[in-house]
Design goal:
Blueprint lengths: L1 E2 L2 E2 L3 E2 L3 E5 L5 H8 L2 H6 L8 H19 L3 E6 L4 E9 L7 E7 L8 H15 L5 E6 L4 H9 L3 E6 L8 E7 L5
Parallel strand pairs: 7-8
Antiparallel strand pairs: 1-2, 3-4, 4-5, 5-6, 6-7, 8-10, 9-10
Helix pairs in contact: 1-3
């Protein structure tokens, strides 16, 4: 996929296309960032319109994609091209390592899409992007997220606080045991 004249990796699984988030995803990103589970478990990003979602993509997603060659991806169901959620490898401020994150619209949760996309990006992180480890964070009360992090092989390491945050998060990690 080409974003601002640069070609970036896209991925495919049996049921999904996984490609970098682009400006055409703004309406979808607006819905996702304002759904109840996003607000509860990830936090309010104060994106109140599709135009603000465009700006969010430009200012929050594109810079890392351009800097590292990977970032946040839109997860699309092959059978009907429906945008289901996002999954990404993120370089988060105040967090050690590259964080794998995922969020799906409520109607697509619990159907294995998050596992399928996270497993694919974990493999790409190690094999393609040559990451030495992948980390993950979640709130202690987000049991589905905790289970998914463990299902893709991450192990609980410790509780942490992110900068300017008062809520403890569970920090998971997985080292790349392959020789690069």
């Amino acid at each position: 996929m080409i974003v601002d004249g640069v070609r970036y990796h896209t991925f495919e699984t049996e049921r999904l296309f996984i490609r970098p988030c682009v400006l055409d995803d703004a309406e979808f990103i607006f819905k996702l960032l304002n759904c109840e589970s996003w607000l509860k478990y990830i936090g309010n990003r104060n994106v109140k319109s599709v135009e603000e979602a465009c700006n969010y993509i430009k200012t929050k997603m594109y810079p890392q994609l351009k800097r590292l060659g990977f970032g946040n991806y839109t997860v699309i169901r092959k059978s009907d091209n429906t945008k289901l959620g996002t999954c990404g490898l993120n370089d988060r401020e105040g967090l050690e390592g590259i964080d794998i994150g995922f969020a799906f619209l409520p109607q697509y949760e619990g159907q294995g899409y998050a596992f399928e996309s996270a497993q694919k990006l974990k493999t790409a992180g190690f094999d393609l992007f040559l990451l030495t480890e992948i980390t993950g964070i979640t709130r202690p009360d987000n049991l589905p997220s905790r289970k998914l992090l463990e299902k893709i092989g991450l192990h609980f390491d410790k509780c942490i606080l992110l900068p300017n945050d008062q809520e403890k998060l569970m920090f998971y990690r997985l080292e790349n045991n392959k020789k690069n």
